[in-house]
Structures are given as structure tokens and as C-alpha cells.
Amino acid sequence: LSKPTRPEQRSVFPPGPRTRHIDINILCVGETGIGKSTLMDTLFKTDLIDTQHSAPLKEVTLDENTYHLKESQVKLQLTIIDTVGYGDQVERGESDQPVVDYIERQFDNYLQAELRIQRNLRDFRDPRVHVCIYFISPTGHSLKALDIACMRALQTRVNIVPVISKADTIARNEMSRFKQRILQDLAQNDIQIYHFPTDDNAVADINARMNDILPFAVIGSRDETEINGQKVRARLYPWGTVEVENESHCDFIQLREMLIRINMEDLRETTHTVHYEMFRRAALKDMGISSGDGESGKPVRLSDLLQTKSDSHVKDLQAAEEKMKQCFIEKVSAVEAQLKKEEKEMQDSIDALKTKVAQQKASVEESKNKLDEEIALFRKHRTQVQATQAQAAKEGQSSEKRKK
Q1: What was the pLDDT predicted at 132?
Q2: Of the chain's two ends, which shows fewer C-beta atoms within 10 Å, N or C?
Q3: What is the mean pLDDT of residues 158-172?
Q4: What is the DSSP track for 126-173?
Q5: DSSP 299
Q6: Three-state secondary-structure class, residue 27
Q7: Cα–Cα distance measured from residue 42 to residue 233, given in angstroms and rounded to the nearest whole number
Q8: Four-point Cα dihedral 313, 315, 321, 323, nearest 10
Q9: pLDDT by residue (tens digit) across 87-144?
Q10: Phi and psi for 311 in degrees, rounded to 5?
Q11: Strand 240-243 to strand 216-217: parallel, antiparallel, or no bridges (unpaired)?
């Protein structure tokens, strides 16, 4: 690779006249091992926590880590949210749901802080996700079904900035075609990604050029090497060195400039005025709070609205309680009927058994009577036989005496 002169090393934070406190929350969505942690380390020039998992996880979990960074006049509270286990499941159809739930949960936390009677949003840590860096595998072909499904679910909830990770694995001419196929897939599936604003004349030209580069092809590295007397982050290969901050090698510098230096405030503002505002309106509508006009065209008093909502809630609770009572009564009645049925079946079985025993007892009694009669008859017959034999013997003795 050629080695043109590198740009001057600059701070990664936007400049300011005085100390500024900024909350920025970055959601990294991508499959395991795609280089999310490495890119974040490279982006903020520090070593962030990298959670390693030896085996694929059964479900997607979101691991957030907050860091306090300071450079020049900027104090940055950076929160990195990693999608641990994303894409590891056999059934990937619902891999995006934990991510959607997390984003909406942070919106709800912010909404609850807004609705408090005593609120202090000035010192309140903004938990909302300001940008989603979506990592695309460097396949060189097209977006995966998982990528399309996830970005479609996230597009109305967060600013999506797609990046092609490990861009050094694709040849330069193939990378251009790969980017075009990705943009075609996004257009065919009606997926809206974040485009850098061009309505501000100060940044309109550079943002327009950067929009033409999307999606960014990036490389991350934790290793430093010395080139021309300067230490730079790079990846070393037998065929040469790939410099992270070399614009002819990848789009890392463009990504860093666009996200952190030039458009960080727009990302925060878009999150608040577009994505959070859509969530807030839907949430307030679900709570029964309308846009402010009643049926008569007069403003609705909040106290009246809350009272109406409370009355409706009480009625719903009473109806639910009555339904539960009725359900309980029906279940008790069903159990009682079942017990009575089982009791009747048991009693019928006992009665049948008693009848059978009585019949058997009567049969045994009848057999016993017959046997007694037979025994008596036998004894009578035996007595008669014995008498006959005795008589015959007696007559025999008399006949012998007469012969003599």
C-alpha cells in the first residue's frame, strides 16, 4: 500500500471556548468477533473494557460501560453499549428485539424524569442512545437478512450509521461495489440511515461529501507501530502495513470526524427532536394525554385529565376485580361439582361392592346349608347302614346256633 502523508493529529473532541460537559451514548450492534470493542478503543484513543465470551450465548444481552474522558475544554461522559451474543443464536429472527427494548427503556427513563414534579434535567444524565454504529460483516456480497431486519426495526428509534468492519479484508475495487450493493439493499428495503446534515453552510460541503462515502469502511487496531518516526495505530501483515488513520487505507478518519468532531451535537439533537419525540408522543397518547384540545375546542386542564384517567383506572380495576371474583366463583363451583361427582362415583362403587359382598355372603350361606343337609343325610344313612349290619350279624349268630 502507498504511504501518503498522514493528517495532523487532532483532538477527537469538538473544540469549545470553555469547559463543556457532554453525554454521548453509542450503541454498537454487530455479530460476535466483528471488531466492535477494537473500533471503540481506536475511536477514543483509549483502552475500553472488552467483555469476552468463550461460547455462543443463547440470547442477546446488552452490556453498557460508562467512561469519563477529558481533553482540552471538554468533559465527555461516554457510554458504550455492546450487543453481546448478537447473531449467535440458531433462530436469529428476534435478535433485534432486546436492542429495541433497551432503546425504548432508555426513552422511558428520560420521559419519567421529565414528568416529575420536581425535576432537574440540567444535571440529569441523558440515558438515551444517540447513535447506533451498525457493523456490517465484510462479505463483499450484500446485507444479511439479520442486518436488514435489525436496521428496519431500529431506523425509527435511533440514528443508524452503518460501517463495514475489518475493511482490510476486502480489495479496494471490491469495496466500492460492496458499498453500492449495501446502499441498494437499504433502498430496496426502505431503510433510512442517518445522513449528516447539509442545511448548515459551515459544514454542508464536508457533510455532503461524507454522505457519499457511506457506509464507512473502517479498520480498528489496539497495536501501535512506528512509521516515519511517529507511532500510529496499524495492523501489520506480511505484505505490508495497514494504517488506521490513513485515508487511502480506510474511512476511519472520516467516521471519527463526522461522529465526534462535526456532528455530535446534531446526533444528540436529532435523538431528542425526532426519535425521542416520536416515542414521547406515543407514550403520552397511551397515557390518555392528547395534543391539548378537547372536544369543545377548549384547552384541557391537566387536573381534569388526571382525574378522568384516575376514574377510568378505578373502573378498570373494579371491572378486573369483579371479573376475578366471577372467575374464582366459577372455578370453585367447577371444583365443587367435580368433587361431588367423584364422591357420588365413590359412593356408587362402595354400594356396588357392598351388594357384591352381600351376594357372595348369601351364596356362601346357601352352600353351607346344603353342606349341613348333606352331612345330616350322610349321618342318617350311616346310622341306618350300621343298624342293618348289626341286625344282619345278630341274625347270622342265631342261625348258627340253630344249626348246632
Answers
A1: 94
A2: C
A3: 88
A4: --S--EEEEEEP--SS---HHHHHHHHHHTTTS-EEEEESSGGGS-HH
A5: B
A6: strand
A7: 8
A8: -120
A9: 876 666 678 889 999 999 999 999 888 887 777 766 778 899 999 999 999 887 888 8
A10: -60, -40
A11: unpaired
What would the DSSP string read from start to end of 246-278?
A: -TTT-SHHHHHIIIIIISHHHHHHHIIIIIHHH
Mention every residue, 6+ apart, whose C-beta is less than 8 A from residue 1. 240, 241, 242, 246, 248, 249
Query: How far is it, in rounded angstroms, from Cα 15 to Cα 265?
Result: 12
Side chain identity, residue 212: D
Which pTM value belongs to this model?
A: 0.67
Pairing of strands 230-237, 240-243: antiparallel
Partnered with residue 226 across adjacent β-strands are: 231
**Over the range 169-206, which residues count as b (16 or more CB within 10 Å of their CB) and which as e?**
ebeeeebeebbeebeebbeeeebebbebbeeeeebeeb
Q: How far apart are CA 293 and CA 56, in angstroms?
A: 53
CA distances from 393 to 88, 160, 380, 397, 398 (A): 115, 133, 20, 6, 9
Give the angle 204-206-210 at the CA atoms, nearest 5°.
Answer: 115
Identify residue 21 by its one-letter amino acid code: H
